[in-house]
Design goal:
Chains A, B, C, D: Belongs to the argininosuccinate synthase family. Type 1 subfamily. The structure is a homotetramer of 408-residue chains. With 408 residues, the first copy, chain A, is of the alpha/beta class. Chain A is built from 13 helices and 14 strands.
């Protein structure tokens, strides 16, 4: 790879990406463009502008954008149509944000004539893979720079030395080492590393940042109602909300009731296992609600096929293959199932749990006429079941007959 | 089908199966053998003996058995190795009990020279299918009698008339109609029908029988520890327990903390949707714990394959194909993955939730040496990630290059 | 089911469906509408009109249609996009025709105000299922009449008696029993039953009707070229052809070279195994060609996912679930993969075989620059493979280390 | 990676691996152990001993072994139980040999106290991955040396220079470049590269080495009979044969009839597409025969599940994951299905094709009593089909009713 001339950096404004910014300038002597996105991580963006300017970035090279609506509408919601969970439990909060960041990095590179993009993910994690696969899938000629895999700033001390040497301001609370590492966006907050590295030890309470402890949650349950249209949530308690506003509102509700905490050891794509603490308050409610509305609006054949495809779909997102033909194929299948996933779900939120307690829809496939214990007025002929069973049994009978024949 | 001469009836001792017993005698003039099993449903069995005798069953034709250990060891535990859930949520508590009952019915038929078995499931549900597929898979020549599909006792009144006419004692509380229908065994209690038939209405509190309301559960969380060997739970808080005793103990813990309630609309094999309220206190804890121990002992390749196979496996059990070659194939695959699923999991039980909070194992695949944020002493070379990404990206780059070439 | 008043019958004009026609008139006293379709079975349709008139059908109730183009375009081609084969070998020639016939039956019923449709499939086969599932999926209120499951004309003699009694003309060659049963359409000819019922006996030569014996095929191979656009074949040897014309031409080529014969024992949906002799000359060539063009135009991720989904897709078609949400979901996934499946394939036809020998495309993903054994000018860095292997190996190393640790 | 001290090299005795041998000695100054295996590639092994001695390998460090029986018994046959084909067509002849070679390399390393193994695969192909993943899965601490990824002998000229400088004898026909690259073992011969690099060009006739041109095959078909036991072939025409002898015999038969040629463009695990010419004469017959015997002995449920699992299984072998938990899980499932796959298949071999024409088995599930077009004496009640269809249709009717309701 030849040296980059102009690089678009995913820039948070924090110490680490500021060091990367400087390192790119000094190591490659290249022009740096910064991209700072509001994905709902809960930090102000404007300070990033000032820091970028301070580090010598030209104003026209500073991109600061609120992409929350795009994030939820085009990434989070399509994923939730699939009921995607990784390894049975993880709602993919970090994974799903990466392709969008890469998409904007690549687009800004094309707008500004940059030949490279750079990110601050380390060489041990999944995020590097997600950033880079997405970037290459969108621009096969782009260069991707991952300083953590290249430089020799391998300890905290070396990093701080570099920062000081380069006049990068260091916030006081960054001098000491953080006791764990955090990633956040509108869908979730993840914490990992350091105090969390021993999976036999319970995570300390202070790790949780976005949800109250279930013990501290209200003593009264709260019933909410979520409306869906074609597989996507569109309202809460009757109020229509944009995708990002809806997820924000669900986060408030979930956070208040201590919903969506997860302590997980997961298998990374790069081959090792890691332990993470995830908080996905709104997403946890949304998943439950989406399953709730599918229960009455989705046919069994479609629902079971979705369940079988889901683990692969989740794995693809986890591994960074959002922009891949196979994810798009699965998405096409999933989306084809959601046309009638319209209606309302009532959920009970209480001390860490969100559970569906009622659901209704004009698109419902539930037929009280068929299922009733009462007289069904001929809707269903119980005698049909005899033939149904006989023909389902036929191959099993032939198997059993063989067994007896060979033993006899 | 020629008329049966001797029938083994799955007999609970209750009103409905007593009516069936009598009906078999009068309709077919056949000898009846009763089989009453303790599957952990929480009812005494000896009264069933007296009732059977009263209805003229010879003592040698009355079979009363405690099959709880076999149930948990050979059915529930193998299923939990798979982390089986149907339609994302249902732990299959009713489904998994049916094949064992059929197995004993068929075995008793062979011991007693009976040519038929009979069950009390209706023609609308899944249970008839499960009973009958299992019976036919074990004895291709057995006759199966399903009185609910045959007789004309189509209303409660007609049933009670038949009972009275035939001197079948009717408990006072059975005169009126039960407000919903219940099935119970050591794994769960299910309730459905009547007051539950409108899925838009919240289930009344009195439906729940086996778990306290989360609001009434203890205000203090309880931490428990479950030990596993080769995929099966073997101890609680350090005390070794037999399968049935272990599940019984988990049920107590789960019931006390309001764990394992589910309000579900599901797709039945016979084609309609139905709504059920399930309480699976111990099973819900067990599933969480099993996932917890797999997190550190199961390789990612095995874990993901298991997740992909699971929905099919669950569907097979739900549909009644426990005794089928494909269920056995899947079981072989699942069991092959469990050799090292040995270790301990700590869970926090609190007001409706059971969550893994720590896990450890001599068989752990978690490598702090690899994953650490600290210096890893060369365990992992971050530069490897560059090549890993490049080759994973290669096909995506070729795709992107095609896109550009064709547009350009 | 109340008695039908007006029935649309799938009518071939042959003896069996003429008997059905009469039986419907006499058994139900209902008005009969006939539907006779040209699906490429190679028979003239106009005689069916005369026979229908002779049996008293009003001219406005006689529907005769050439639906070959619709058949190939909307059913055969979508299925071939999936490379669908049932049980590894069967190209689904009969299965794929049934839903289209049902679709037209239901449409004609709606046009003519009929309340029922009828077909001539027996109660042992798959076709009854396919006809009826499709009919019910398109009109939930339609009645379906399957005379073979209802009447008592259970022997050839009884059928002929009924025909004579009702003045149905019997062709001389129909007096004796056919030595096997045949179904044909533009995609294939299938033969089964009677002389073919022992799968240990080789099928007699006279069973094959549509392909020459490979031994009698030309001694010279023939090279042909098939052009594809977006997954569908569009030309042969440079000549653009409509779907039906293209398949007709491939049938000629395949028939001449003895291509597409199959002797199969398959598992029917109704539970038994049956033996069929299938001839699918054009389809066999088309499948090979479609795989040929996908080899260079379809990404590995998409191709492998397609291969994994295919058996389910084929099973759905075989079992009669063309009109089901899950088939439509799979079709959406498959179709999403075919956008670039455009280009040309050269095949060699010779004495029973069709093999891809060359293929090219503007949409090709094959990169000689990458794969070459020669100097690749930096297109591919072999050192990347080291990291790729290391990270793919990491979990395997951790597994092996555990094995050693526990043994050590 | 620290420098290796003692290396076990997969040594063919040819020029390339002789250069590697020398390079290992000179580059690392390490002791070299050679392993030369007879996998049925059709070359004498003893010359390799002489060459190794000439290059200074101590006699006790020269391992020459005939591992054909182990190869077929423990690798080829288990794979054929799965009917494994990669990307619909490739029988995995190269892929399946690699793990066995690695297994012996690792075992010899442990016997001889070597700390490393080495292979002669390039950095562009799949074989490096297969060798190395297998080695690491068997010994997590082994070093693997892949000289083609390390050295600078990047052209034929440099290689020959190195050989001359190091007194490595060069056979005359190796001076010029081979027009393509070949790999062979008892299962297949593959050819790729150079003259084959343009997939739009037909492969020249001289590429094929193991099968006659179909045009030159006998004009008379040959009927053979293969006997199976529990999924593995055990006899040909009534003669019991060991696994390797059986495959050898099938290769003769297939080679003589021009069977098993394949011209394929495939997706490599490392991300690019490549074109190969494969000849798998015996394997092609074996696959057809195995499907033939499964047709009557394998239940539909098992057969369809196998078909769904197969593409993943084949992909795992192709990608080098033979020694992985997920391959072992799938193998357990597949093997669990083969208990009754016992019987005989008759095949017709003719000018490039092998087709099943008859099959029989004491374990057959085919029931003429059920399937017959004649009177079945009550084996099957056609009326059962009505109920079977009604309940399979119920969900489709509910879907159709919704569609009408919403439109109406």
């Amino acid at each position: 790879m030849s040296a980059p001339k102009k690089v678009v950096l995913a820039y948070s404004g924090g110490l680490d990406t500021s060091i990367i910014l400087k390192w790119l300038q000094t190591e490659y002597g290249c022009e740096v463009v910064t991209f700072t996105a509001d994905l709902g991580q809960g930090e102000e963006l404007e300070p990033a502008r000032k820091k970028a300017e301070l580090l010598g970035i030209k104003p026209e090279n500073i991109f600061i954008e609120d992409i929350r609506e795009e994030f939820v509408r085009d990434f989070v919601f399509p994923m939730f149509r699939a009921n995607a969970v990784y390894e049975g439990l993880y709602l993919l909060g970090t994974s799903i944000a990466r392709p969008l960041i890469s998409k904007r990095l690549v687009e800004i590179a094309e707008e500004t004539g940059a030949d490279a993009v750079a990110h601050g993910a380390t060489g041990k994690g999944n995020d590097q893979v997600r950033f880079e696969l997405a970037a290459y899938a969108l621009n096969p000629d782009i260069k991707v720079i991952a300083p953590w895999r290249e430089w020799d700033l391998s300890s905290r001390t070396k990093l701080l030395d570099f920062a000081e040497k380069n006049q990068i301001p260091i916030a006081k609370d960054k001098r000491g080492e953080a006791p764990f590492s955090v990633d956040a966006n509108l869908l979730h907050t993840s914490s990992e590393g350091k105090v969390l590295e021993d999976p036999a030890e319970m995570a300390p309470d202070y790790v949780y940042q976005r949800t109250v402890h279930p013990e501290d949650a209200p003593n009264e349950p709260e019933i909410i109602e979520i409306g869906f249209e074609k597989g996507d949530a569109v309202s809460i308690n009757g109020e229509a909300l944009s995708p990002a506003n809806l997820l924000t509102k669900l986060n408030e509700l979930g956070g208040k009731h201590g919903i969506g905490r997860l302590d997980l050891v997961e298998g990374r794509f790069v081959g090792m296992k890691s332990r993470g603490i995830y908080e996905t308050p709104g997403g946890t409610i949304l998943l439950e609600a989406h399953r709730g509305i599918e229960q009455i609006t989705l046919d069994r054949g479609a629902a079971h096929l979705k369940d079988e495809l889901m683990p692969r779909y989740a794995e693809l997102i986890y591994n960074g293959f959002w922009y891949s033909p196979e994810r798009e194929m699965l998405q096409a299948a999933i989306d084809a199932s959601q046309h009638h996933v319209t209606g309302s779900v009532k959920l009970k939120l209480y001390k860490g749990s969100a559970r569906t307690v009622a659901r209704w829809s004009d698109h419902s496939l539930y037929s009280e006429a068929h299922v009733t214990f009462e007289d069904d007025a001929g809707a269903y002929d119980q005698k049909d079941a005899a033939g149904f069973i006989q023909l389902n049994a036929l191959r099993l009978k032939l198997l059993a007959a063989r067994e007896r024949r060979l033993k006899g």
